[in-house]
Amino acid sequence: MKKIIKTGITTLALVLAVAAGVKAQTKGNSEPQRPSFSLSVGPEAGIPVGNFSDFYKWSLGGSVQADYAIIKKTLYVNLNAGFANVFADDVPGLDDLQWIPVKAGLRYYPFQSNNLYVQGQAGVNFITNGPTGYKTAAFTYSPQIGYLIPLGKGSYLDAGVKFDGNSKFVDGGDAANLIGLRVAYTFKL
Questions:
Q1: N- or C-end of the chain: fewer Cβ atoms within 10 A?
Q2: Angstrom distances, CA of residue 187 to CA of 41, 68, 92, 128, 132
Q3: CA atoms lying within 13 Å on the CB side of residue 185
Q4: Beta-ladder partners of 58
């Protein structure tokens, strides 16, 4: 557990350090360099936490997300869909879990001249290969903190650290939670 916390803190520190460096390069420009409407595509990786980590090692997947500004390029509504494979530990009879999360949420940029954001999403996680007795869907939620790094005209790198929480996939079981990282190529539409 300590290793997971250290990894999360280190990743967050790295994202914030990159954010500070990018901020230094764009000083003097008080207008945000954020698109009104964007699409992002990228990989996601995670480490199971809690009792879920007793049976699963890590996850790898990808997602597509659309963001649309609803208030002055500060508050965005978004839709996200993806696929993830959660790799099982070496437990006889235990297979990898595969799921398709579909979520909606809000992204907020608290500083007008900075691309640091906080995001919250909620939705449904569809289990594609659950063992007998597993539910086929579960409630999922994902708070995230990240930074939108400008790459060039209309393109960005979106890097964020997130927590993926899922309700129980089986009655009497434990929640399936992960701490993850999403790095996506973002382009304005």
A1: N
A2: 9, 12, 44, 30, 41
A3: 2
A4: 87
User: For 98-127, how does the pLDDT look when each residue is reduced to its tens digit (9 = 90+)?
Assistant: 999 999 999 999 998 889 999 999 999 999
pTM of the model: 0.80
Q: Is the pLDDT of residue 58 over 50?
A: yes
Give how far the C-alpha of residue 11 lies from the chain's centroid of Cα atoms, to the nearest Å: 13
Q: What is the pLDDT of residues 4-21, one digit of tens each?
A: 555 555 555 554 455 445
Identity of the amino acid at 86: V
Whether the Cβ atoms of residue 183 and residue 159 lie closer than 8 Å to each other: yes
Does the CA dihedral 11-37-188-151 come out positive or negative? negative
Task: Determine how many CB atoms are found less than 10 A away from the CB of residue 99.
Answer: 24
User: In which element (H, E) is residue 5 found?
Assistant: helix 2-25
Per DSSP, which regions of 109-154 are E strands?
Answer: 116-127, 137-152
CB neighbourhood size of 125 (10 A): 24
What structural domains and CATH numbers belong to the chain?
2-188 (2.40.160.20)
CA pair distance 75, 162, nearest whole angstrom: 18
User: What kind and span of H or E run contains 158?
Assistant: strand 155-166
Q: Give the residue carrying structure tokens 């954001």.
A: 117
